[in-house]
Amino acid sequence: MANGIVASYKSWLKYRQTCNELNRLTTRELDDLGIARGEISKVAKRSAGY
């Protein structure tokens, strides 16, 4: 059970880090990556394995 909690927490941390990093980018930089600002959460979830 503890391993599951730790794994969930690590996934959440990766999700938050990815969101934060992508939100720091300009719209132009996001466009260059092919990501719309409204898709940041979806991209971050995919990155974290959700």
Automatic annotation (TrEMBL):
InterPro entries: YjiS-like. Residues 5-40 form the YjiS-like domain. It comes from the Bacteria. This is YjiS-like domain-containing protein.
